[in-house]
Amino acid sequence: MLNSFVLERQGNKIIYGIVVYDCEKICSFISNVNFQDAKLILDSVQEAITIDDENGNTVWVNRACEQLYEIKREDLIGKNIDTLEKMGVFSHSVAKEVFRKNQQVSILHNNKKGKRILTTGTPILDNDGTIKQVISTSRDITELIVLKNDLEDIQNELEELKERQQVIFNDFIIESQEMKNILQLAKRLSQVDSTVLITGDSGVGKGEIAKYIHQCGSRKKHSLIKVNCGAIPESLLESELFGYEYGAFTGSKKQGKVGLFELAHKGTIFLDEIGELPLNLQVKILQVIQDKEIQRVGGLTSIPVDVRIIAATNKDLQNMVVEKKFREDLFYRLNVVPIHIPPLRERPEDIFPLIRHFLRKYNKKFNMAKRLDSNSVAILMKYPWPGNVRELENIIERAIITTRQDLIIPQNLPNYILNVGDGSSDIVFPSTTRNLKDTLEEIEKQIIHKAVIKYKTTREVAKALGVSQPTIVRKMNKFKITDGDFNDSNNNADS
């Protein structure tokens, strides 16, 4: 902006200084200074300046105008604004708009090379309020627009990074407060040697919590031995757990074998699926907890073991106690501090962060750049996930491997996911005769519109859909979704 200027004549020379540019001040400057002097000054500024008379004929342009529109000033001066529009010099004449509206007007248009030009036309009025001149100033703002878009992209990346940092809690991808509370409890339990029983459906991450407890505690320098009690044949389970001496049974090794409890000495043993443990071995596990020693199969001496026991199950052990399928005394020994991990369907806040995490993980693993479209995300968010986190991870890995294009759409998801519940019943699929881009945009518009109706602010919409708030604002502008659609428009101050 031309906030100040200095004009001084020294003999035949004019000494001047111009600081940033302002259209109205230039108009005032031209009106109050000898035009010949003004031309010398205006020819030195970087902004393109055009002066049109009351009939719309160009009477003068500066050098910057020649450069911006790539035309000599003699080819501009004397020509009417209509003629210049037809010549393609200006795609849209701002002076014409000034004459029509009798006020200052700004427009954004392109020059011959497609650069974005911001032009402001300001009328110079006579005493009767009639336009006697229009002074137009133009500047190339292509780089500004690029910088603005780059800034938006950086802001979006920062928002996504911030969101990612919010959901990575002690290396766990979570958003729900319930899971954060579980991890905080696990962290406290890691500092003591109490026996822990972790319960929850298959695939919720019981093994990860056990690993976390071990790694945060004083035993982390020693082994974490994992035993799946349901995967080892009952006939072999005792010798696997406690080891055996030579001659304990036919085919035993001459040197005998060290059991898993001995391998876990000074460390932790994780007894997964402990509900599958036979009753006769339940007694021996109870003895290990009480006496802190084991006896190998076929052995006569006891071997001291210093080991922490963490057990896990997807079964109702209390009910098994009632049914005499699990020892009551062992249950209470194991259940000193219980941790129950809720299924994924009960903590939907964690679904999208996990989707995003697995997309990154397997894109990196397979050197790909696949992404999910909005409708696919909506379907995955509504699916009940009976297989929990493990099932979600498998689905994302499968989609990345099997989808040929970079965008994963609903048709790339397994049919059993598409057909469960109302995963997509509230989304109207456009006609298949439309191209894919238009179809996806229409679906995206529906998803965003429904979220805007459901939630109070753009931040809540962004959180629900797993994107940044600036992205939601930009999408709402693109699809002409207004703030009035919010559930409570009085609360959308952050929109």
TrEMBL record:
InterPro entries: AAA+_ATPase (IPR003593), AAA_lid_NorR (IPR058031), Homeodomain-like_sf (IPR009057), HTH_TyrR (IPR030828), P-loop_NTPase (IPR027417), PAC (IPR001610), PAS (IPR000014), PAS-assoc_C (IPR000700). Residues 144-171 form a coiled coil. Residues 172-401 form the Sigma-54 factor interaction domain. One of its GO terms (biological process) is regulation of DNA-templated transcription. Residues 34-80 form the PAS domain. CDD domains: AAA, PAS. One of its GO terms (molecular function) is DNA binding. Keywords: Aromatic hydrocarbons catabolism, ATP-binding, Coiled coil, DNA-binding, Nucleotide-binding, Transcription, Transcription regulation. Residues 101-153 form the PAC domain. This is HTH-type transcriptional regulatory protein TyrR.
